[in-house]
Amino acid sequence: MKTVGQLMGSPVISVAPTETVAAAIARLRQHGIGGLPVVERGRLVGMVTIHDLLGRPPYRPVREVMSPAVGTVAPGEPVTTAYALMDAHGVDRLAVVEGNTLVGVVTRGDLLQELGKLTDPLTELPWSGSLRQHGADLLKAGREIAVLFIDLDDFGMVNKLYGHVVGDNIIKAVAALLLGRIDSETDFLCRYGGDEFAIVTTRDLESAKRLAQELRQAIAGVAVPGASPGAISGSIGVAGGKRTQERQDVHYEATVDDLITMASRASTMAKRTPQHVLQGAAPAPTAAAAPSPRIGIRRVDLHVTALRGVATVELEHRGRQVSGRAEGPVLGMGGLRLLVEATLNAVRQYLPPGWEVALEDLSRATVGGLEVLHVLLVAATPTQEERLLGSASFAADPHEAAVRATMKAVNRLLLQRMEVPA
Fold this sequence. Notes:
- The protein is an alpha+beta fold.
- It contains 12 helices and 16 strands.
- The protein has a 5-stranded mixed beta sheet with strand order 7-8-6-9-10. Strands 3-4-5 form a 3-stranded mixed beta sheet. Strands 11-12-13 form a 3-stranded antiparallel beta sheet.
- Helix 4 (79-89) packs across helix 5, helix 7 packs across helix 8 and helix 11 (334-347) packs parallel to helix 12.
- It is elongated, with a radius of gyration of 29 Å.
């Protein structure tokens, strides 16, 4: 989010209290501005606007028509703080002061232009920058917060099946639903991006989880013309709540980002649970637990636009996190193939020198009444080549199934043949 210093007008055009109304009007016209700070011996003593000057005798001194400088703002403050000050004082401009020095002037018009960029035109909800600022302000005031991260399930496929017009209508319908279900006294809602929303709340953790469950059920009941019943669902991660010890040397914005990250990860994990709601937590290694030789899955994402997709997969092994990415067409099995390739691109970062692993075949089959995905890999070392098969059920999430099947094959190789470097 931009600061006041990035928007303020500078150098400062000012007027002295002893100058005349005529001189002040001439200066306003010369510079095409609507108001002037009144400065005496380097000290801010008031503000004068065109409304203060019109109709006044031209010979009168500015000190007799000016308004007191009821509010000032520091250049490092966010634009939302300056806008709140203007509303509180009922003014349209603020002097920007650093220490005791007047360094600029910021107007309501300056702020509105920037704040408009912080609002999503589709849903009219604020973007994530406003949510981060709101969360940081609450922490600075000593309030406890929790974050709910709402991610619509398989929305890329929804856009593909029903088209982007219907997709946009779904986003608007979900936004309206969320806005109608929250309490503005305790909750702040934003569109985080794409098919994701986030809420910062001062509710306690249990109340936040109950809200998440209510929202999850309500989203599943949203009906939009052009989309089949039941096409819309969402998964929600929750993080935050009462701290266990006093904060010291806290970077409030970073704390909010950490909560968003934990809630976002929890929303991804929640897709694998029947309730589709999960509480996130910061990783806390235990001394008694032996490190697993397996590579774990942290995040799976497939974003589809105009029949092309971008797959991202995050893995973790013994505390080392890696990310793989792949992009291309998603028709047919294309989306699942991208997820396998993204997984392999991540896995390659763990392989010893001289090792390689590649996708040979990807197929779907029905086994015992369940639809199963089979991934056949080729693993090569400097001295030999081996084929590896991994399978996973489609029952929960086909995207996750592609990654799980790939990792079953890779982890089998890991357990049998190689030691992955930490």
